[in-house]
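Running this now, will post back.
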Amino acid sequence: MSDRKIALYPGTFDPITNGHYDIIERARNLFDEVIVAVAESKDKKPMFTLKERIHMTKAAVDGIDGVRVVGFDNLTIELAHEHDAGVLIRGLRAVSDFEYELQLGYLNNSLDEKIETVYLMPKLKHAFISSSIVRNLLKFNGKTVHLLPQEVQEIIESKKICI
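Update: finished.
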């Protein structure tokens, strides 16, 4: 294992939002490499396919050195082992996120005590943004340009995605 600090930021990213992007930038300032791991998450019935979500995420983070994107459909801890990641990044927007994220952190710690979970908060202006809010707006052709990275907005508009 190298001395490089590698962090894994797992999520569904359905789609990736400005809040996610903010967390990625913050994590990159703390770690040598950040791997954004896009989960298959069939149970969540995502609006976008895994391939689309990976494409949107890669487009969003393309300009950030030291960030790469992978797709996965296994345990997060297993993925961390595959990529020598010693830290899991989790985002917290509000107190309501905390209980779930804390339980997930404890679960991951029970699977591997050496892997730490670091919780990061987005800037206040992004704290209300969630992928579910964006998906609801997209269903009704609502305005999302202020919620998504420009590259993601353009991909969605080019597909004329409207559910």
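Strands lie at 6-11, 33-39, 67-72, 87-91, 116-120. More later if anyone needs it.
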